[in-house]
Amino acid sequence: MNDIVVYKERWSEMRNRTFFGDKIYIHNEFNQQVKSQYNSEMLTPIKAIKGMPLIIKQRIKAADDLYNRAVSKIRQPIEAMFSWLIEKTDIQRASKVSSTKGLMVHAFGKLTATFLNYVLNP
User: Fold this and answer.
1) What is the DSSP letter of 1?
2) Do the beta carbons of residue 25 and residue 2 sit within 8 Å?
3) At the top level of its lineage, which domain of life is listed (predicted)?
4) CA–CA separation, 105 vs 2, rounded Å?
C-alpha cells in the first residue's frame, strides 16, 4: 500500500500534530483540509513549479533551500532508522503473510528478535 494512502486513512485525523514527509505527501488541498479541521500539518520539501519564471526561482531559491534542509534534517534520522530495520530484519519480505494478524506477528516478531539480538550482542 502506498504511504499516502496509509497517511490519509490512519494518521490525517490526529489532532495537533506536525508530520514530516517526502514529496509524495504534497497534496495541498488535502493538507489544507487537515490543517483547518484537525490543526495538524504535513511538512514536505518544496517542489519546484514547472514554468515558473527564472527570476522568481532565483529570488525564492535561498528560502526554499533553507526550508528543505530543515525538513530533511528532521527526516534523516527517521529514514536511517528505517533503513537499519530493513537491513537487520528483512521485514519487508512477508510474501507468505495472508492476514492482518499474520502481518502483525511477522512485523513484531522480527522487531523483537532484532532488538533482543542487539541488546544481548552489542
Assistant:
1) -
2) no
3) Bacteria
4) 21
CA–CA gap between residue 44 and residue 38 (Å, rounded): 18
What residue ranges do the domains of the chain occupy?
A: 1-44, 46-89, 90-122
Please give the helix or strand (H or E) that residue 20 lies within, else none.
strand 18-20
pLDDT in tens, the chain (122 residues): 678 888 888 888 999 999 998 888 888 789 999 999 999 999 999 888 888 898 888 889 999 999 999 999 999 999 999 898 889 888 888 888 889 899 899 999 999 998 898 899 87
Look at the pTM and tell me if it is higher than 0.70.
no
Phi, psi of 39 (to 5 degrees): 55, 35
Residue 88's identity, in one-letter code, is K
C-alpha cell at 96: 507468505
Residues pairing with 42 in the sheet: 19
